[in-house]
Amino acid sequence: MTTAPPVLTVADFATESIAVDQLAQAGYVIVPNFLAREHCQQLYDYALNLPAQGWQQAGIGRADNYTTNSAVRQDKIRWLRADYHYENAYLRMMDQLRLELNRELFMGLFDYECHLAHYPPGAFYRKHLDAFKGRSNRILTTVFYLNPDWQEQDGGQLVIYGERGEVLETVLPEAGKLVVFLSDVFVHEVLPGARDRFSITGWYRLNTSIGGVVDPTR
Ligand SMILES: O=C(O)CCC(=O)C(=O)O
Ligand SMILES: [Fe+2]
C-alpha cells in the first residue's frame, strides 16, 4: 500500500509579510518554522530511507564546468523530481512561494530547482557563492533543514558572511527552518557536523532563454 502524498502549504512565509519585508531589506531571511513539524518529519523519513543509489556525489559548477571536488564540498545530493510524490509535494509548495515572492517583491522568478543534501558526520562545504554576478540565472537560494533535535554541539552550522567578510548569521540546521538569501550576494559555508545532516537546497531562477532555447537547469 502506498501512503498518500503530504499536502504541503506555505505555512508562515507567504502570510508573514515581515519575512518578505526582511528579505527585501536585508537580502536574506531566516524563517524558523516554515513547515509544520509532521510534514518536516515525513520529508526527513523519506530522505533517511532513500537507498544509497538514490544519491549522487555533489559537484561544483553547471553543465560543461561541472566537477566534483571533495576539498570544497562533501555532501551527497538528489535532485527532486515531480514524478516522486514526496518530492513533488515540496516542489509544489516552493512554487507557491515563488508566486508569492513575485507578487510581493516583483522578482519575476521563472522557475525553481532543488536537491536533497546529505552531509555525513565531518562533511562540509567551504565558503562559496551560489551564483556569480551577471553570469548565472540563479537569483534566490533556499535552504530547508530536516534535522530533528539538532543541538549546538552537533555543529553543521550554515555561516553567512557580509560584504566585508564579517559573520552575519550562524544558523543551526534545525528541522522546519528555512533560510532564503540572494544567491550572488552572500558568501556562505557549511561547517562540519557530528551527525548526519539533511536539507533541501534550491534556487529560484530567472528565465535567460535566448532564441527559444531554454537555459538548462543545474
Ligand atoms: O546546507 C546548507 O546549509 C547550505 C548548502 C549550500 O550552500 C549549497 O548547497 O550551495
Ligand atoms: Fe551554497
Automatic annotation (TrEMBL):
MF terms (GO), sorted A to Z: ferrous iron binding; L-ascorbic acid binding; peptidyl-proline dioxygenase activity
Keyword Metal-binding: yes
Domain Fe2OG dioxygenase: 105-206
Biological processes annotated in GO: cellular response to hypoxia
Keyword Glycoprotein among UniProt keywords: no
Named cofactor requirement(s): L-ascorbate
Taxonomic superkingdom: Bacteria
Keywords, alphabetical: Dioxygenase, Iron, Metal-binding, Oxidoreductase, Vitamin C
Protein name: 2OG-Fe(II) oxygenase
